[in-house]
Structures are given as C-alpha cells and as structure tokens.
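Running this now, will post back.
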Amino acid sequence: MKKRRQKRKIHFVLFITLSFLFVFLSSAYAILSQDVVIQGSAIIMRKESTGGDFVGEVVDEDDGLVENEDGSSNFVGNEGASVNNFIQIPGDSYLWRILSIDSSGNLKIIRNRDENLACVFDTNGRANDWPNTTIYQVLQNFYQEYLSSFASNIVQNPEWLLTQSDKKSGPTLVTIVGTFRDSPIGLIRNDEILNSSSGGISGNTVSSWLNDGYQWTMTYFTNKPTTAWKVNGGKFMNSKASSSGNTVARPVIYLKSDVTFSRGTGTKDDPFVVN
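Update: finished.
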C-alpha cells in the first residue's frame, strides 16, 4: 500500500511538472511569435523594430505610405498633401524625407531643399556620363563633409538606375540605360516623382509632395545627352546640363534596414529621429 501511494505521488508530481512545462512553453511560443528575443536563460524581451519596419508600424495609408505587390512601399501624395515621411539624421540641420522602403527594409531618403547646393549639372555637357559630371562631384563633397561620420548607417553600394527620357514618351516614362554602384549618394529619377504623385501626370505637370522649386533629377534627355531633366515645382523641363547654376541638387541616400530610431511620428514637427 505504501509503495502504491508513493507511486501515485510520483505520478501526480510528474503530471503537475509536465502541465507547468506545457503552459510555460505555450506562453513562450506566443511571445516569441511576436518578435521577441531570449537573452541568457531567463530574460524574455520584445525585439526592437528598426528601419522600414519601425516606420511601417507608425504610419499607414492615411499618412501616404502605400505598399506595393513586391513588398516594398513608397510615400504617395499630391503637392500640399499631408505625407508624414519627415526624418532627421545625426549631424544635419536639414530634414530629409522618405521616398520609399524596399522589401528588405532599407529606407531611400531625399534631403530637403538647400540653396547652398545649387549647381550646374556638368560644366562640359556630359549629362549621360554620370560618374564624370560636375554634380556627381558636388554630391561626393557633400557626403564627405556631412555624412561620412554617419556612414555605418548608410548603404554604401546601392543600385542607382541610370535613365533617360524624351518628350515624345513623356518625361516620367524612363528607359534604363545602365546601373551604377560606386557611390552611396545620388539623385532622384524622373519616374520616382511620378510614383510619388497620387494624381498622375497631366502634360508635363506632376503634382507631388516632392515638388519644391527647381531641382535636378538623375535622368538625362534621350536625344540630347548633353541635357539633363530638372523639375520646377510640378512642371518638368529640360535644360542644358552646363547652364543652370540656380538648380538645386537634393541628395538621396539609402539608410540600412537595421537603423534605429529614438522617436518620431513622421510629421514635420515630430520627424522620425535616427539614433
């Protein structure tokens, strides 16, 4: 009788132990399925969202963020629309804005207009020779002076699409003529301005949150390789690459998907702040 009681006691203890273990594992699985990591053997904490994941958790379509079929997203809105994509990076007094988020969570961002970056596209009229243009060197100098200390957070060799466009097909319908990977900094393309508009194109006019006076694009004129496309507000126009010194270059870079933020909701008064 005594042995039987001991055996029942052992069974009861095993039952309680296994029940507790089952509850613990079920709870742990439920927590782990919600982006958590285990540190050591006892501490369970939520995994911090970074890059595009962080932005996507804060803003949605009401803020202008539209998800594409390939898993990427871009900010869309007409001129004057409330598009909450403002971002601040260390060491720069100017705000930037998020153009798009790729499927890996990298953020493509463009700097707000800065008159100090008004320049010619190329003094020798080589708009179709991107790495040898004057504006390319202007961007390299800007990067070294203002962004090199922040380089660990910037994608160093992204794929820049080299494009051309002509008036017959419309300035926002570009043809890819090559790629360039030897620079962490570049410019926006004509087609990206179209993609940022919820109203589309009317003639040569595109209403977009990106519109902000004269600014260069990285797209050159198809039949005139000495000519680069630029934007004046919402109106596209082409200009001789060697002539327009009053046209602003707005730097574009890619932030890595693991970049972290200290705060922000994406509005102009409360931008996303990169650590």
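Residues 2-46 form one domain. More later if anyone needs it.
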